[in-house]
Amino acid sequence: MSKQIGSPSRTRTIMNQYGIHAKKGFGQNFLTNPDVLSGIVRAAKITKDDNVIEIGPGIGALTEKLAQAAGQVVALEIDESLLPVLDDVLSPYDNVTVLNRDVLKTNLAELVQTAFEDPTKPVKVVANLPYYITSPILFSLLASQVEWAAVCVMMQKEVADRLVAKPGTKDYGALTLAIDYRMDVKVAFAVSRKSFVPAPNVDSAIVLLTQKKAPLPVAPFNDDRLFGLVRGCFAHRRKSLWNNLKTIVGKDKERLERVRLVLDQLGIDAQTRPERLSLVEFINLTNAMHDQGLL
Ligand code: SAM
What is the rounded distance in angstroms from the CA atom of residue 259 to the CA atom of residue 249? Predict the structure, then answer.
């Protein structure tokens, strides 16, 4: 069999043969480091029992590795001009389907039900993400209501740092909380910019997200309300929590007194910065403010 797609020489050959120029607008940086490709498949613990969705197969470097390890692979590629290339280079594999789709306009729950031969098998998302839409993709994966067995994705290192940030650090924010609310997150390994053609301007990391093992230690509440409050509190992260809450509830004195009461009851210092609050504190704050008719 010819050399694997994800090597510097074969990538160069394919790009020359098909006249491919990486499109910046689609976030195209092709992986050419075989160790990184194997590392991703290992980190995602792909087995022949897995259904895999790949976002953005590019010229197929990761797709090929996934085809070798997984039961079935469905790859979504927005760039129509790559379809004939993928068709060719992936022809040795009969367990791969490439669809010309924008992942952000795809109903993922429906895709899982229709594209896989056995949709009851574990479904994993594996991708070297297009960095310009990393957060929207993560949010659409979470919003899809699919029980992902794992989401193992390459992203810009700075975004990975935000996903695993601890309260009180500069990287901690609405994105950290939104992901932490639903998934356990760990950085599997860092990836140098030299592993890609063309090399991006930033270093990267492989992040593994899995369903939360321990449920959140708090009573049910409304997600929209929680994240409305979180976004509101991080709107001015250099301001105190109190000043952010004032913007959210308005200037009415009596309402502000109720906010004061809620903070006292929860033992939260009004002058603290919102970035010091943990996910559980945000949930408790949401519930208590709702009980007081403030949200
Ligand atoms: N998987 C390949 C690799 O590792 O070499 C390519 C990764 S490249 C960083 C990102 C890929 O995502 C590109 O192929 C790009 O065309 C594709 N892409 C960009 N936006 C997309 C979208 N909205 N939906 C699906 N694919 C997209």
Answer: 8
Nearest ligand 1 atom to the CA of 30 is 5
- Mean pLDDT, range 10-38, rounded to an integer: 97
pLDDT band at 189 (very low <50, low <70, confident <90, very high): very high
Give me the domains of the chain, ranges plus CATH numbers.
8-211 (3.40.50.150), 223-291 (1.10.8.100)
Give 109 Cα–ligand 1 centroid separation in angstroms.
20
Using the mean position of ligand 1's atoms as its centre, give its distance from the Cα of residue 75 in Å. Answer: 10
Interval 256-282 mean pLDDT: 97
Which pLDDT score is estimated for 30? 98
Look up residue 251 and give its two tokens: 């200037």
**Ligand 1 contacts CB of residue 56 (under 6 A):** yes
The response to whether residue 58 sits with its C-beta less than 6 Å from ligand 1 reads: yes
Long-range pairs, 83-90, Cβ under 8 A, ≥24:
84/18, 85/14, 85/18, 85/20, 85/59, 85/60, 86/57, 86/59, 86/60, 89/5, 89/14, 89/59, 89/60, 89/64, 90/60, 90/63, 90/64
Tokens of 178: 């939104």
Amino acid at 212: K
pLDDT of residue 279: 94
Average pLDDT, integer, range 126-151: 96
Sequence-separated contacts (24+) of 215-218 with Cβ below 8 Å? 216/181, 216/279, 216/280, 216/283, 217/280, 218/280, 218/283, 218/284, 218/287
Q: State if residue 31 touches ligand 1 by the CB under 6 angstroms criterion.
A: yes
Q: What is the pLDDT of residue 215?
A: 75
pLDDT in tens, 219-248: 667 888 999 999 999 999 899 999 999 999
For ligand 1, is residue 26 a contact (CB within 6 Å)? yes
Nearest CA to ligand 1 atom 8: 28
